[in-house]
């Protein structure tokens, strides 16, 4: 999967913004100001960090040891790094983006959830 496809999918979600707060090589996508994915723009193949339920994170790493790794520069209990080298199904990638988005959404304050609902 290329960065344009990944970015477009993420930006199609309600309340998502993008930026480069860590420098030009890390595209950060946030839901209502909270990071839900980071894409390493200087990596080939593309690598992305996604938040994940801790038990599911372990399971995914066991199922896909070459392409789903503990989150690089992140809390390894709650984040995975996916290597998008073409071996992971597009549906799984999008499912894990949705999972990360939904985890962040669930953790938003009541006020931010209300603001998101109004978008």
TrEMBL record:
InterPro entries given in the database record: YjbR, YjbR-like_sf, YjbR/MT2646/Rv2570-like
Pfam families on file: YjbR
Highest rank taxon of the organism: Bacteria
SUPFAM superfamilies, alphabetized: YjbR-like
UniProt keyword annotations, A-Z: DNA-binding
GO molecular function per UniProt: DNA binding
Protein name per UniProt: MmcQ/YjbR family DNA-binding protein
